[in-house]
Design goal:
This protein is of the alpha+beta class. The protein has helices at 5-20, 26-33, 38-50, and strands at 54-56, 64-66, 75-79, 85-86, 106-110, 128-133, 142-147, 151-159, 164-167, 176-178, 183-193. Strands 3, 4, 5, 6, 7, 8, 9, 10 and 11 form a nine-stranded mixed sheet that branches.
């Protein structure tokens, strides 16, 4: 799966700040990612600012910075991207606000202990995933699936005639197959944000 322009820009800015200690300019983002147009780069950056994923301090030349995890609300808890685990978040992992930074999405943090089954689609342990609430999905959607009413996992969804397959995106893991009545779709993955 190809990374989105937004994901590429966020990762570039994060890596740049890690190395240089300050944020890149628009021109440096354009050249670093390989975009031909400064205007296209600016448009993608503005979209990220509008979504609350970037903060732009306009009075500074290097005013771009990543929004921090606390800006992503509501943060509903953690999700595993490995074998399904009991979906009971710790109380201090939940933080509700009245407004979403990205309307219609809620946020989950991918477990750092058991969250490596989606690494081949750039979803890594410690990342934050924006989820659109949904009860149905189409084949190849990445979903939050609730198994047997109490175990949740993040996987790629495939509906077959006699079962549902939840497929990891890590060749070290095998697909998981369940009867239709054992799986409840709770949302569809829309965006990943990393602060590594």
């Amino acid at each position: 799966m190809t990374s989105s322009p937004g994901h590429n820009i966020l990762k570039f800015i994060s890596d740049y700040i890690d190395v240089k200690g300050f944020s890149p300019t628009l021109t440096e983002i354009k050249e670093g990612i390989g975009y031909k147009s400064r205007g296209t780069t600016y448009r993608y950056v503005c979209q990220l600012v509008d979504k609350g994923l970037l903060v732009n301090r306009k009075n500074e030349k290097r005013g771009l910075r990543l929004a921090r995890p606390a800006d992503f609300q509501p943060l509903m808890g953690q999700i595993v991207a490995g074998s399904p685990l009991e979906a009971i978040p710790e109380p201090d992992q939940i933080n509700f606000l009245d407004k979403f930074k990205i309307p219609g999405l809620y946020w989950l943090k991918v477990s750092e202990e058991c969250g490596d089954s989606m690494i081949e689609v750039n979803i890594n342990p410690g990342d934050y995933v924006g989820i659109k609430p949904a009860q149905q999905a189409k084949n190849s959607d990445i979903v939050v699936a609730l198994i047997d009413q109490h175990e949740a996992t993040l996987k790629t969804f495939y509906q077959c005639k006699s079962y549902i397959e939840l497929r990891p995106e890590n060749r070290n893991y095998k697909p998981q197959r369940y009867a239709h009545d054992r799986v409840e779709i709770q949302g569809i993955h829309k965006i990943t944000v990393s602060f590594r």
